[in-house]
């Protein structure tokens, strides 16, 4: 395996499958099976999931809702998704811990860095819910922050697109894919990988990002094994 410890970033929308909202149990099961392929090989895995399948704070704010309140609702949505994924992973026999940046002691542990590291060392998958615990920060920022804190080797951003393109491949048939690209070139070309705060934090800490299609079965294992899947962003 090329990477020993990874931070897997999943969007909330990815959990919807073909639904319009909510969580698709079949998609959850597929993700859990793909993650089990890694745990069976001794890869240490931490996961951050968005909450867009349930609620987006920014979307609520655009319709007149208080932004801080909306963001807190979004953070709770990520905990719901984390609980769902935890259940799916445990159904596959994978020991899993959910840690939340917002204290909800009845359903999750509080985020404690040393405890998270210990779980990873013992082979448990750690799901980080609740974002950063602060409004105005996305789950992309939470993913990069947690990856740095746990000393992950890489951030794997699982999406429905198989990498970074010169333009939106779903809208532009002439869009071409990058196999490798530098942080600097992403910024120069104005490409959208993560929000600016998260992307800059990753760049400053020399933490590579791999953007790949999570919905193609087996891709996750291929990425961690070092195959040229998706797009790698590095220095």
Q: What percent of residues adopt helix (DSSP H or I)?
A: 25-40%
Number of helical regions: 8
Q: Class by helix and strand content?
A: alpha/beta
Sum up the overall morphology in one term: globular
Specify the CATH architecture.
3-Layer(aba) Sandwich
CATH class term: Alpha Beta
**Measured distance between first and last alpha carbons:** 21 Å
Tally of distinct domains: 1
CATH topology title: Carbamate kinase
CATH H-tier superfamily: Acetylglutamate kinase-like
Tell me the Rg in angstroms: 17 Å
- Pattern of helices and strands: EHEHHEEHEHEEEEHHEHE
Major β-sheet profile: 9 strands, mixed
Give the percentage of residues in beta strands: 15-25%
Query: Mean pLDDT, rounded to whole units?
Result: 95
Number of strands: 11
Strand order, largest beta sheet: 4-3-5-2-1-6-10-11-9
Low-confidence stretches: none
Can you walk through the features of this model?
With 235 residues, the chain is α/β, with parallel strands linked by helices. The chain has one domain: Carbamate kinase (3-Layer(aba) Sandwich), CATH 3.40.1160.10. Helices cover 37% and strands 20% of the residues. It has helices at 25-39, 57-62, 67-91, 113-121, 139-149, 183-189, 196-204, 219-224; strands spanning 5-10, 44-49, 96-100, 109-110, 125-129, 154-159, 164-165, 177-178, 180-182, 209-213, 231-234. It has a 9-stranded mixed beta sheet with strand order 4-3-5-2-1-6-10-11-9, with helices on both faces. A two-stranded antiparallel sheet has the order 7-8. Helix 1 (25-39) links the parallel strand 1 and strand 2. The longest helix is centred in the middle third of the chain and has 25 residues, at 67-91.
């Amino acid at each position: 395996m090329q990477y020993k410890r990874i931070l897997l970033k999943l969007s909330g929308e990815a959990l919807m499958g073909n639904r319009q909202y909510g969580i698709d149990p079949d998609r959850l099961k597929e993700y859990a099976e793909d993650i089990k392929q890694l745990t069976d090989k001794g890869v240490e895995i931490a996961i951050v999931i968005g909450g867009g399948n349930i609620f987006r704070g920014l979307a609520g704010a655009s319709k007149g809702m208080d932004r801080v309140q909306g963001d807190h609702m979004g953070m709770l949505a990520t905990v719901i998704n984390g609980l769902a994924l935890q259940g799916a992973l445990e159904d596959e026999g994978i020991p899993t811990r959910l840690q939340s940046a917002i204290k909800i002691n009845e359903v999750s542990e509080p985020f404690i860095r040393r405890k998270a590291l210990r779980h990873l060392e013992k082979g448990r998958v750690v799901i980080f819910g609740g974002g950063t615990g602060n409004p105005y920060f996305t789950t992309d920022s939470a993913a990069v922050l947690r990856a740095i804190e746990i000393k992950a080797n890489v951030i794997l951003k699982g999406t429905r697109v198989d990498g970074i393109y010169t333009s939106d491949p779903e809208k532009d048939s002439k869009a071409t894919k990058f196999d490798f690209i530098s942080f600097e070139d992403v910024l120069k070309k104005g490409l959208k990988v993560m929000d600016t705060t998260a992307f800059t934090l990753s760049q400053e800490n020399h933490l590579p990002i791999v953007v790949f299609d999570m919905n193609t079965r087996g891709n996750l294992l291929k990425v961690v094994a070092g195959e040229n899947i998706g797009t790698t962003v590095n220095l």
